[in-house]
From TrEMBL:
InterPro entries: ADH-like_C, ADH-like_N, ER, GroES-like_sf, NAD(P)-bd_dom_sf, Quin_OxRdtase/zeta-crystal_CS, Zn-ADH-like_protein
Domain Enoyl reductase (ER): 10-316
Species whose genome carries this gene: Catenulispora subtropica
Pfam families in UniProt: ADH_N (PF08240), ADH_zinc_N (PF00107)
Listed name of the protein: NADPH:quinone oxidoreductase family protein
Residues that span the membrane, as ranges: none
Gene3D superfamilies: Medium-chain alcohol dehydrogenases, catalytic domain (3.90.180.10), NAD(P)-binding Rossmann-like Domain (3.40.50.720)
Top-rank taxon: Bacteria
Region (Disordered): 1-21
Length: 318
């Protein structure tokens, strides 16, 4: 079968190689899945660089999220492949208890990018931050894959959503998602803009998949008893928070690693999937797919994702 493989660490566009390899054989508790669509994620970039906390042995096939068809049953599912057999291939293997029914309302590309972004958003906003209707939610990288999901989930929860995006096209995308206030960080100081939009009070909840300057600025515009959700560090800089500042302003810093819920509370993950599927059926949420890429375009897609150029999800269709 055809597959992309990483034989050595480096930038995706430099190290990815298109190869022919045998189809993987499912082990105990696994199912063989024919890939229908593979969503690109920032962890794919970090794995290529050798910088991710989970590092498969070389060579490996990247791709941590997919929509596919279980070979034995024909069921359309979404899930995370069992590395080193990633989703950027014709076939992969998925743990049978982590292969969730694909939402019927979403096509293959939309379904491929649904699991990680929306589960992360749901657990971050509801389980960690306990976002309430009427509160103000600030979302960084609001036109990206993770941020666009948070904007939709925040609106569904009845929050007032302030979206921060970089550039006119991304600002337009965040606006189309339903954000109440959109801030183009290339044109505005987002700290001042958030304070202005909230009458000086600040945001009750901050959803930050960026880190670096986004996190530091968020500490200056988070409300009294606000909550900052640390989702990731796509900006490339892991901040070192001044805890005395959190003390004097009475805000909380909440870490979010969604993957831990899969092992520590799998029923909560399954229940979340059922609720998110219901929301997709009702048209409340829908994956923002920015580009549908041919199989040969996977390295270029990962390069654009690494450079922060993507709007929504980039999905490879084998």
């Amino acid at each position: 079968m055809k597959a992309w493989q990483v034989p050595t660490h480096g930038e995706p566009a430099d190290v990815l190689r298109s190869t022919d390899v045998p189809a993987p054989a499912p082990g105990p508790g696994q199912v063989l899945v024919k890939v229908r669509a593979a969503a690109l994620n920032f962890p794919d970039v970090l794995m290529c660089r050798g910088q991710y906390q989970v590092q498969p042995p070389l060579p490996y096939t990247p791709g941590v999220e997919l929509c596919g068809e279980v070979v034995d049953t024909g069921e359309r599912v979404i899930g995370m492949p069992v590395l080193p057999h990633g989703a950027l291939a014709e076939y992969t293997v998925v743990a049978s208890d982590s292969a969730y029914p694909a939402p019927p309302a979403l096509d293959d590309a939309e379904a491929a990018g649904f699991l990680l972004a929306y589960q992360t958003g749901w657990f971050g906003l509801h389980r960690r931050a306990h976002l309430q209707a009427g509160e103000t939610l600030l979302v960084h990288a609001a036109a990206g894959g993770v941020g666009s999901a948070a904007v939709q989930l925040g609106k569904a929860a009845g929050a007032r959503v302030i979206a921060v995006a970089g550039g006119e096209a991304k600002a337009d995308a965040a606006r189309a998602l339903g954000a109440d206030v959109v801030i183009d960080r290339h044109e505005q100081d987002f700290v001042a803009a958030v304070k202005d939009a909230t009458g000086g009070r600040g945001a009750d909840v901050v959803y930050d998949p960026v880190g670096g300057a986004a996190y530091q600025g968020s500490t200056k515009c988070v409300a009294f008893e606000g909550r900052i959700i640390v989702v990731g560090f796509a900006g490339g800089v892991i901040p070192s928070p001044a805890l005395n500042h959190a003390l004097v302003k009475n805000y909380s810093i909440l870490g979010l690693h969604w993957g831990l819920y899969r092992s520590k509370d799998p029923e909560a993950v399954a229940a979340c999937h059922r609720e998110l599927t219901r929301m997709a059926e009702a048209g409340v949420v829908k994956t923002l797919v920015g580009e549908r890429l041919a199989f040969e375009e996977a390295p270029a897609g990962l390069a654009r994702l690494a450079g922060g150029e993507a709007i929504g999800r980039l999905v490879v269709l084998p």
